[in-house]
Write a structure and sequence with these properties.
The chain is built from 11 helices and 11 strands. The chain is of the alpha/beta class and 278 residues long. The model has no long low-confidence stretch (mean pLDDT 95). The chain binds zinc ion.
């Protein structure tokens, strides 16, 4: 039996791309923020190089449009470039037409630089909800082959969402859903493999949980953001819950991610999806 490989993913956005906060939700103000993404992404690229891992970068179209050299560098190192939307807007806050325009613009911005098709999507803040499942039709129509936006958890998504990669039917053909990896805990599905959950969860718990999934043939998705590698970033004036989500324990991200890169097999999500269904 082939060993199970996990998806290593990066949501490529800058330190001020925070959903639901008035102060940073207007793209017209974004040019006034210091651009820190090249420096913070360099830390991730260097770790990936050190451990020979190829990853998937879910790129914000706005970043592609403003940092084409960075996008070229990431693609040049053999990583997959997928989309995180253009303006970092939650899917459930957009109409179908607005989402269609945002996705189209992001794919255009990325593929103009890479000259390659964009196959994957991750919604800002995992924001596809059952009421917005029209998003899968829109994505598939734009040529997207897999989505990684569903959280099978009451708090952010729905506990009944699939916990393993699954093929969904759309009006334009099948699309693969690779949901956020979760563990069963007290009748709830709890995330642990990226972002704040990874910063909170004990490292050896995360490692052994993924290893035990892999032994059963189940791939995990690990995710991070460049700003989680930037302990010197300016602090936004966020509401308390957002401040916790964004900044808590940020200093441990690099060490935990490095440990996982060193000990687990990873590949870009498009390859993990292909292997899972072959
Ligand atoms: Zn994001």
């Amino acid at each position: 039996m082939r060993p199970t490989i996990n998806a290593f993913t990066v949501d490529l956005e800058d330190w001020y791309h925070v959903c639901g906060v008035d102060a940073c939700s207007d793209p017209a103000t974004w040019a006034s923020y210091e651009r820190r993404i090249t420096g913070s992404t360099a830390k991730i690229l260097s770790l990936l190089r050190r451990y020979g891992v190829k990853a998937t970068f879910f790129v914000l179209g706005y970043i592609a449009a403003n940092e084409p050299a960075l996008i070229k560098e990431i693609a040049g190192e053999g990583h997959e470039l997928a989309t995180h939307g253009f303006f970092h807007r939650r899917v459930y806050e957009m109409s179908e037409m607005e989402f269609d325009a945002d996705i189209g613009r992001s794919i255009e911005a990325i593929s103009t630089i890479t000259k390659a098709p964009v196959l994957g999507f991750r919604a800002p803040e995992w924001s596809i909800r059952r009421a917005n499942f029209w998003a899968f039709d829109v994505l598939r129509r734009h040529g997207i082959e897999y989505d990684s936006s569903l959280v099978p958890m009451s708090f952010m998504g729905c506990r009944d969402y699939p916990r393993l990669p699954v093929k969904l039917q759309t009006r334009y053909g099948e699309i693969v859903e690779f949901p956020l990896t979760t563990a069963r805990l007290f009748h709830e599905n709890v995330p642990f493999s990226g972002g704040l959950p990874l910063r909170i969860a004990p490292y050896f718990y995360v490692l052994s949980k993924i290893q035990s999934m892999n032994r059963r043939g189940i791939p995990a998705v690990v995710y991070t953001h460049p700003w989680e590698f930037d302990t010197a970033q300016p602090k936004l004036n966020l509401p308390l819950s957002r401040r916790f989500m964004h900044y808590f324990n940020i200093g441990v991200t690099g060490r935990k991610v490095e440990g996982l890169l060193k000990r687990l097999p990873f590949a870009p999500m498009k390859d993990v999806v292909t292997a899972y269904f072959s």
